[in-house]
Amino acid sequence: MSNLKMLAIDLGATSGRGIVGSFDGKKLTLEENHRFDDSSSYMAGTLQWNVMDIFENIKTSIKLAGTDTQSIGIDTWGVDYALIGKDGRTVSNPVNYRDSRTDDIIEYAERFMTKSELYQATGIQSMNFNTLYQLLADMRSNPKLLDSAGRFLMIPDFLNYLLTGKKLNEYTNATTGALIDPKTKDWAYDVIKKHGIPTHIFGEIVQPGTKIGKLLPQIRSEVGDIDADIVSVASHDTASAIMSVPAKGENFVYISSGTWSLMGTELRSPIISKETELYNITNEGGADGRICFLKNIMGLWIHTECRRDFARKDGFKTSYDDLAAMGEKSQPMRSIINPDDVIFTPPGNMTGRIQDYCKRTSQPVPETKGEFVRCVFDSLALRYRNTLECIEKITGNKTPFINIIGGGSKETVLNQFTADCCGIPVYAGPTEATAIGNLVSQTIASGELKDLSEARAMISDSFGVECYEPNPSNKAVWDAGYEKFLKLTNKN
Question: Cα 255 vs. chain centroid, distance in angstroms?
Fold first, then answer.
């Protein structure tokens, strides 16, 4: 019987942790061994990642995992990167994608390629923090910066480089930045050249599950004599999370629920058309040669920011469960927002932003905690329904159910609202989706699992999934709310 011990380093945009995974040949078990902040700081007016603090915490997690650890994998958020000089040192510290240097970059980029041309070439939705735009912003402010760079590495590639000395680009994370041709799965060199970005900085692309090396001797001297394989997992956290969807067959729809809600389906090849461009649906790289065909929805970020506002006003934090209960008891469809309106992107005063939106759209203004939560949950469920209809229309497939994975799968009230609103069952779980996907990549790389289909069957056996059936008695309320939502979002 197998006894595989692995370490998943799972880095989100606000916090990171080390998760030790143990696979006995049938089931996977998890244990967190270290948790830490992924902090950013303003340096000379630019919001930059404290990447060396992150790296020190990664080494702490590796040390705590112990010498019997057989493999290690790192997943992170997408789009951000490091530039490595020809001497192997960093040219500049990695910048956080929320930095303001790209606020006006989409308009600036139109002189090289239109948004439509870029989408048709890469299949990636237009967002001002896409990697291509960040590189263009760097060149605009410092034209010689990229000339001095020897290699371009996304954040997980950079962290793997610090551990192993190997400079490789993992496919799924590279796709997040509008730099990859989705058909060839190689760098989109025509796009890169048209934007004046030097092509020599882009190196070898490897697929998820590639063993890239061992720890450098200097690292082993710090963390212990660990002879682990460093595996290039599906290093974009969304791609790892989608690997953990415990669905059988195809045509399922997933929501990777957290700060963002990433809602989509798996495809064998990209769909890039005027229609997908209109809906702003992205074709990101996934594991096992698949395409993560999805839409970014502003998710529980709005809910979390509301909770922060409540804490500032009350002086204490109300639990998420209590807030959900307040929302459930409040009047449905009283106030609805478009979660993807740019007004809800910045941090701070989220309740005030919601009130301003409702005033502007001639709706009742939320006042109580329950009214705010109900507004957010109703609006998210309605956006999910709208996105589901778009996916079904484009793919021509009828969706039998929705899988909600990630931390947001614990929001039981929102799960039920989603089932009621969409009119199909919702399966919630696993919660630790990204870490599980990371560990699955390592397990496949070790030869203990054959492929993603076998891995998903194992995940179903290892982790609990809760089913939420739609309540037919609520259908009329949700249908009326959806008509209101469509008029609202078309108007705004």
Answer: 11
Both 171 and 273 in a single domain? Answer: no
Q: What is the CATH number of the domain that holds 282?
A: 3.30.420.40
| Residues 355/343, Cβ–Cβ less than 8 Å | no
Q: Would you call 303 exposed, middle or buried from its count of C-beta atoms within 10 A (0-12, 13-18, 19+)? A: buried
Element (H, E) at 416: helix 412-422
Which of 186, 202, 237 terminates a domain? The answer is 237
Cα(first)–Cα(last) distance of the chain, in Å?
58
237 is catalytic: yes
Residue 463 and residue 359: Cα distance in Å, rounded? 44
Q: What is the pLDDT of residues 373-423, one digit of tens each?
A: 999 999 999 999 999 999 999 999 999 999 999 999 999 999 999 999 999
Query: In this structure, are 399 and 355 located in the same domain?
Result: yes
Q: Using one digit for the tens of pLDDT, what is the confidence trace for 24-53?
A: 999 999 999 999 988 889 999 999 999 999
Concatenated DSSP letters for 2-16? Answer: --EEEEEEEE-SSEE
Domain limits for position 405: 245-431+450-492
Q: 3-state class of 192 per DSSP?
A: helix
Of 216, 237, 258, which marks where a domain is finished? 237
Beta bridge partners of 20: 7, 31
Same-domain status, 230 and 252: no
Residue with tokens 């049938």: 26
Active-site hit among 75, 229, 237, 420: 237
